[in-house]
Amino acid sequence: MLSCETPKRDKSPWVVEPRQWWQGIHTVPIERSLITADPVRISDCLTSLDTGRWLLRDDTFTDNLALFRPSNVEFRPGIGAALSIRRESLGVREYSAASLTSRDKYLFGRFEAIIKASNVPGVVTGFFLHRDSPRQEIDIEIVGKRTDRLLVNVFYNPGGEGAKFDYGYRGAASYIDLGFDASESEHLFAIEWGPCEIRWLVDNRLIHRRVDWDPTPIPNLPMALHVNAWPSRSKELAGRLASRRLPTTSFIKVVALEASRH
């Protein structure tokens, strides 16, 4: 799908996490039109900001030690988007960070990005799908304290569009050893999201999958696509923030998708 040059695949052996006896519940969605709609195909090398496609965030959230600032996203030809974290007093936060969010929402499809993550402890480089009301989410995260592994997770809340369920089912996080350091070179990370299964791939190799109710339902409502870099308040998640090593930068060379737009 990517139109820009993709990174070389790692030749070391990969093993998909072993499946347990629980196979989940395979269901058939009622609204078949949501699946059969003609997908859109996008490949953005992020050499400049497409304002019709992306929003630069200027807000924050509870677990984020920083405030997202548009000026922390720099577009560089041949490199892509550079997402920086800096130490600076902004009143509500003592750090600034960077985030891109898609203007459109998508339902089911393949989402991929070429990423080179920050290796500063306490920093999270994220590539994920997310929505509120009800909250649903599919995550890829690389934390600076362990850039040799991937964190994947799924969040699900029931209800239709606008339902005020922003808590509820939380899928247990899974950590997958990558076999390489994601801060040293570019690699292709992908999420394949279907109505009954989610698959995570790295350099086009399947590394993890979840089926319905294993342990959560599969998100079933349109979500926006996000890429970000931010310092986490959670030492358990990302380690203590090594503020003396700031500023730091995560690089997103290409974002591509093939999905139903809503």
Word description of this protein:
This protein is mainly beta. It has one domain: Jelly Rolls. Helix content is 3%, strand content 44%. It has two helices and 15 strands. The chain has a 15-stranded mixed beta sheet that branches. A hairpin with a 5-residue loop joins strand 8 and strand 9. About 9% of the residues have low confidence.
Helix content: under 10%
Shape: globular
- Quick one: biggest sheet? 15 strands, mixed
- The number of domains: 1
Distance between the termini: 21 Å
Succession of helices and strands: HEEEEEEEEEEEEEEHE
CATH class: Mainly Beta
Low-confidence sequence ranges: 8-19, 24-34
SS class:
mainly beta
Mean pLDDT across every amino acid position: 89
By DSSP, the count of extended strands is 15
Strand residue content: 35-45%
Determine the CATH topology. Jelly Rolls
Tally the helices. Answer: 2
Rounded to the nearest angstrom, the radius of gyration is 18 Å
In the CATH hierarchy, the architecture is Sandwich
List the helices and strands and how they pair.
Elements lengths: L32 H4 L3 E5 L9 E3 L9 E3 L4 E4 L3 E8 L7 E22 L6 E9 L4 E8 L5 E7 L18 E4 L9 E7 L3 E6 L2 E7 L11 E9 L3 H4 L9 E14 L1
Parallel strand pairs: 3-6
Antiparallel strand pairs: 1-15, 2-6, 4-5, 5-6, 5-15, 6-11, 6-14, 6-15, 7-8, 7-14, 8-9, 9-10, 11-12, 12-13
